[in-house]
Amino acid sequence: MQLNINVTEFILLGLTQDPSRKNIVFAIFLFFYMGTLLGNFLIIVTIKTSPALGSPMYFFLFYLSLSDTCFSTTVAPRTIVDSLLKEASISFNECIIQVFTFHLFGSLEIFILILMAVDRYVAICKPLHYMTIMNRQVCGMLVATVCVGSCIHSSVQIILALSLPFCGPNEIDHYFCDLQPLLKLACSDTYVINLLLVSNSGTLCTVSFLMLMVSYIIILYSLRNHSAEGRRKALFTCVSHIIVVILFFVPCIFIYTRPATTFPMDKMISVFYTICTPFLNPLIYTLRNAEVKNAMRKLWSKKISDDI
């Protein structure tokens, strides 16, 4: 591994250098981040305290909300603070840590979405064996496995980042550290590293997206044999999952499956999947899920009665 590092810190150019627009960035990021924390916290607490939400689907939803919160936290707090500064800097070590945590929780979200699709497939296509196949022990082992897979994926990102020599300039044309903007600052040919990046992150996003779309097509096709009520309930659940998958994967595929070229809209697309999607996920799952809404009402009623 080559370690030729003369740069000790990077300057994050952010979304804008205009002071008035920085205030807008501050307000938008603060709003979405606070909404993400509140929405996902409500889902986490509701699932943990409600016996009615003990099925594997809500077990995975709990970890999706947890990964959403952590994923957004890797980017949003620093961006909020940086928008108040005239010049935002980040040390080399902090930058590497951000790359690691960003890909750790991003890939964890991908894997959990796959687990949720598997859970829906078993529930709809193998209903008689559902509780046997998707028991709590199996679900726990699956979550542990995807956590290990996420660590492996993010470790590869770190290896790729540390193999790049940085000797100046040190201005990252982005609002957080990621391999694509870092490739532009490297003092060597990055063709091979970019191929490895596309084959790692790009393949992960694309293959996972295709797997999820195929699985949901199979699930929706199998619903033709169900009763009208069963079809309606399963359709509501699957549509929610499909919306989440599209919102998260389409921007990621656009960013990570192309050569190391940048477009003006790259940063705005990154804003969408780093800030907006974690904010929208709780809304999608709660507004379209009667069981979660009912559990939240009971939790709120219980809190009010306890206070009285």
UniProtKB/TrEMBL annotation:
Q: Which of UniProt's keywords are assigned here? A: Cell membrane, G-protein coupled receptor, Membrane, Olfaction, Receptor, Sensory transduction, Transducer, Transmembrane, Transmembrane helix
- Please give one Pfam family short name: 7tm_4
An example of a GO molecular function for this protein is:
G protein-coupled receptor activity
Listed name of the protein: Olfactory receptor
Q: Where is the G-protein coupled receptors family 1 profile domain?
A: 39-285
Q: Write down the Gene3D superfamilies for this protein, in alphabetical order.
A: Rhodopsin 7-helix transmembrane proteins
Quick one: a GO biological-process term for this protein? Answer: G protein-coupled receptor signaling pathway
Chief subcellular site? Answer: membrane
Q: Which residues cross the membrane?
A: 24-45, 57-76, 96-118, 138-160, 201-223, 235-256, 268-287
Q: What PROSITE patterns does its record include? A: G_PROTEIN_RECEP_F1_1, G_PROTEIN_RECEP_F1_2
- Work out whether the entry's keyword set contains GTP-binding: no
Superkingdom of source: Eukaryota
Q: What is the organism of origin for this protein?
A: Mus musculus
A GO cellular-component term linked to this record: membrane
Q: How does it sit in the membrane?
A: Multi-pass membrane protein
